[in-house]
Amino acid sequence: MIDLNAVETTTLQRMLLQYEVEQFLYREARLLDERRLEDWLDLLADELHYWMPMRRNIKFGDWDLEFTSAEDEINWFDEGKDVLAGRIRQINTGVHWPEEPVSRFEHLVTNVEVVDVEGDEVRVNSKFFCYQNRLQDEVNHFVGRREDLLRRDPETGFKLVKRKIILAQNVMLPKVVNTFF
Question: Which of 146, 144, 135 lies closest to 176, judged by CA?
Answer without folding.
Answer: 135
